[in-house]
């Protein structure tokens, strides 16, 4: 049925609640352990015989592992969900920002006060997350024009039929008739109801942006890579012909 009022009261409400829970629940146990349970362990350590060896006491006070490979999927889940539905539910944007800010400060504090010393990570996870972000933008634009094109939710005029006036000699009646025939043929071919949504003033810019971003991504993943490889090869050959860069040596001075 599309993004009609019934969808927002059922699916939309569930998405909003899930986004809110995902921004809070992952921090509950680490904060509980750091702020409350750690104090209970300290009181237990003051009693004679609670820990028989220093190793047992150390194990009791060492925090949990800080797993960066879990943080990235959680962040990307929030990012993709928010961008996917924020056109029709804009309150998801401040919820996502609040989730990111809360996660940043809680992780920063717990890294200093609770978690074990994390292992050294390289930039691979960060680069992979960045490479997914353009696809989040593409999905956002695709769902946005579908949501905003729903005339039962967002009232919007149909695109002006004057766009075909050049083919009819600026005759208003002929332009309108030609436009209506073209629209009817498009709707007959379209089996999913996309044409009425595309032809609305409010949703048409999102559709154009979707096409441009999609073409840009396809170009960058195909021809763009070939062009980049060619330019990089030419640059390397030119650098090899010129020779290594000269190093500047300062004047020798001696006291």
Task: Provide a descriptive summary of the structure in words.
The chain is an all-alpha fold and 255 residues long. The protein is built from 10 helices and no strands. It has helices at residues 5-24, 28-45, 54-61, 68-85, 92-113, 124-148, 172-189, 195-198, 204-221, 223-242. The protein is flat, with a radius of gyration of 29 Å. The protein starts with a helix and ends in a 13-residue tail after the last helix. Helix 1 packs parallel to helix 5 (92-113) and helix 4 runs parallel beside helix 6 (124-148). The longest helix has 25 residues, at 124-148. It has a domain at 1-121.
Lay out the secondary structure.
Elements: H1 5-24, H2 28-45, H3 54-61, H4 68-85, H5 92-113, H6 124-148, H7 172-189, H8 195-198, H9 204-221, H10 223-242
Q: How is this structure best summarized?
A:
The chain is 67% helix and 0% strand.
List descriptors.
255 residues; mainly alpha; 67% helix; 0% strand; flat
Number of strands: 0
Strand content: under 5%
Helix and strand content put the structural class at mainly alpha
Q: What is the N-to-C order of secondary-structure elements (H for helix, E for strand)? A: HHHHHHHHHH
Measured distance between first and last alpha carbons: 87 Å
Radius of gyration: 29 Å
The percentage helix is 55-70%
Number of helices: 10
How much is the average pLDDT?
Answer: 81
The rough form would be described as flat
The major beta sheet can be summarized as: none
Low-pLDDT windows of residues: none
Organism: Bicosoecida sp. CB-2014
Protein name: CSC1/OSCA1-like 7TM region domain-containing protein
Transmembrane segments: 82-106, 206-231
Keywords: Membrane, Transmembrane, Transmembrane helix
């Amino acid at each position: 049925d599309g993004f009609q009022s019934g969808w927002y009261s059922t699916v939309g409400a569930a998405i909003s609640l899930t986004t809110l829970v995902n921004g809070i629940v992952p921090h509950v146990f680490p904060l509980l352990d750091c702020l409350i349970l750690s104090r209970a362990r300290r009181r237990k350590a003051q009693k004679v015989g609670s820990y028989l060896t220093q190793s047992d006491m150390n194990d009791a006070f060492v925090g949990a592992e800080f797993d960066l490979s879990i943080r990235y999927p959680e962040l990307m889940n929030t990012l993709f969900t928010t961008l996917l539905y924020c056109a029709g539910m804009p309150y998801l944007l401040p919820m996502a920002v609040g989730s990111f800010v809360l996660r940043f400060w809680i992780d920063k504090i717990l890294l200093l006060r609770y978690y074990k010393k994390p292992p050294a990570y390289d930039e691979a996870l960060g680069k992979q997350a960045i490479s997914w972000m353009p696809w989040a933008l593409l999905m956002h634009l695709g769902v946005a024009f579908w949501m905003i094109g729903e005339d039962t939710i967002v009232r919007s005029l149909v695109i002006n039929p004057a766009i075909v006036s050049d083919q009819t000699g600026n005759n208003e009646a002929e332009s309108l008739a030609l436009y209506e025939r073209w629209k009817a043929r498009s709707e007959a071919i379209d089996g999913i109801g996309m044409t009425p949504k595309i032809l609305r003033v409010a949703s048409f810019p999102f559709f154009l942006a979707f096409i441009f971003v999609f073409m840009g991504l396809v170009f960058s993943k195909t021809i763009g890579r070939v062009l980049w490889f060619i330019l990089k090869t030419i640059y390397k050959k030119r650098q090899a012909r010129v020779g290594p860069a000269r190093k500047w040596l300062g004047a020798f001075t001696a006291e």
